[in-house]
Design a protein that fits this description.
This is DUF4191 domain-containing protein. By secondary structure, this protein is of the alpha+beta class. It contains 7 helices and 4 strands.
């Protein structure tokens, strides 16, 4: 019994530390996060408490207001923390790969299937929507990478639809924070077995990640591929 309590205490402590760390990271990008959370909690609690006095049940409505205030604060905190995280990742090479890595079940992602010396990168995701090529980097340079990768996909899996997205804030591009939502909205045209077959055929191609060590997620700014390294395919 003591072991279970100890494990539970350790888990709770770990969660509290994670929340504190997330708050500190969010506050660096969102200086008003503390005031916003306090305002949300106080206003929500105050509204329900006032209603409680009006209808003659301040205790019940006060307890309900306290619970809902905590819930509202948690929701607002989560959204602002996510926004701050995307803001810090925006523009960093490899940021899209980090998003794709957490896109959810049903997708198989392969980072850096094509890359050049300027850190322009193309990542690949395979799901029921087909093949999605996600490029990040200079909008003009990534067009060449995407075109080459699409030609290769058409040779290997000509019967599977290939979509291409360029991450960025310019016209015709997809913002990093909207990348996951955009991909999940793509029409589903493949069955489960077809997705598996597509992955099997693509797996035989290999990718840059199997030939050179690259950090997972956003790469440090200023990092360059060593001379003689693999070129974009």
């Amino acid at each position: 019994m003591a072991r279970k309590e100890t494990a539970a205490d350790a888990a709770n402590t770990g969660r509290l530390k994670q929340i504190a760390l997330t708050y500190k990271m969010t506050r660096r990008a969102d200086k008003k996060i503390g005031l916003v959370l306090a305002a949300v909690g106080i206003v929500t609690f105050g509204v329900f408490l006032a209603i409680g006095f009006l209808i003659g049940h301040p205790i019940y409505l006060g307890i309900l207001g306290l619970l809902l205030a905590f819930l509202a604060t948690a929701i607002v905190f989560g959204r602002r923390a996510e926004r701050a995280a995307f803001g810090q990742m925006e523009g960093q090479p490899g940021a899209a790969a980090a998003v794709l890595d957490n896109i959810g079940r049903g997708w198989t992602t392969t980072p850096a299937v094509a890359m050049n010396r300027n850190q322009d990168v193309v990542h690949r995701a395979v799901g029921k929507a087909g093949i999605v090529l996600v490029a990040e980097g200079n909008p003009n340079r990534v067009k060449t990478l995407l075109a080459a990768e699409k030609r290769k996909m058409n040779r290997i899996v000509a019967d599977v639809p290939v979509h291409d997205l360029v991450v960025g804030t310019g016209e015709g591009q997809v913002e990093l924070k909207k990348l996951r939502t955009t991909m999940l909205k793509l029409p589903r045209v493949l069955t489960g077995p077809q997705v598996t077959a597509t992955n099997d055929r693509l797996r035989a191609l290999g990718d840059l990640m199997s030939n050179m060590p690259l950090p997972k997620g956003p790469m440090p700014k200023g990092m360059r591929l060593p001379k003689g390294g693999p070129k974009a395919r």
